[in-house]
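TICKET #2291
ISSUE: user wants both folds in one file
ATTACHMENT 1:
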Amino acid sequence: MKVLKAAIVALVFSTTFLACKKDSSSPSSPSVAGKYVGTYGFDNETPNLFYSLNIKADGVIQEIGESSGVPTGEGTWQINGNTLTATYTMLFEPYNKYSIVAIFDGGKGTLTGTWGYDNNGADGGKMAMSKQ
């Protein structure tokens, strides 16, 4: 009888403990995918030249032309934590390759960072963009 009572108490205690467990899933973070419009600059200049990127959910990134609104460059991107890195190649001669390293602020919908030539995301200048 003592064993039965001990088993019932243990069962009630474990059921109560499990029922009170909080769900630890965190809310989903905003997606970096979307169209961004902003500016870039050379070296340490304040960014003031038009810059637009289309970041697709499938890992494709496109630079968008200011007057045409069509892609002028295309490549791939990835995000680790809140740091987005990307490389893309222009779709016209001389087919220059560029890289970016930017911090994504999901709450503000911004990308702020640097751009560069080839695989160096920092030797070109600064950039700042907002999600449209």
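ATTACHMENT 2:
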Amino acid sequence: MKVKKYLFWLMMVLAVAVVACEEEDDGDTCDSDDLTADFNCPPEIDVLASFCADGVNPSYYTYNGTNYYCTGVDASTCDVALNQIGVALLDEGCSSKKKSMEASLINLSTMAENLLEEVRTESVCN
């Protein structure tokens, strides 16, 4: 009889844990950065870019309402997305100085790496 009670309570705890993990999985975690100064953009341009990841599906950047997808989860898979954002910023009238662009894209990549590390360490359900 004790074994049945123990198993019953163990099953209940496991069920609660599974339900709690499903409810906490609210999708992507995002971090944003204002790129106006980094890309030498005119002050009238809103240059806010976000990096979003869930730690499982391909990550992506969002700029000006458009998602620029990486080819994987890691920040190292985002080179094409970063270059697409750079082109979009040039189209908006931001600086075309190559050295400035490279440093700014590195800042975006660092933001992505930091967010991915946060997603990985805070993931209790995986």
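RESOLUTION: both attachments delivered.
EXTRA DETAIL ON ATTACHMENT 2: The CA atoms of residues 36 and 44 lie 9 Å apart.
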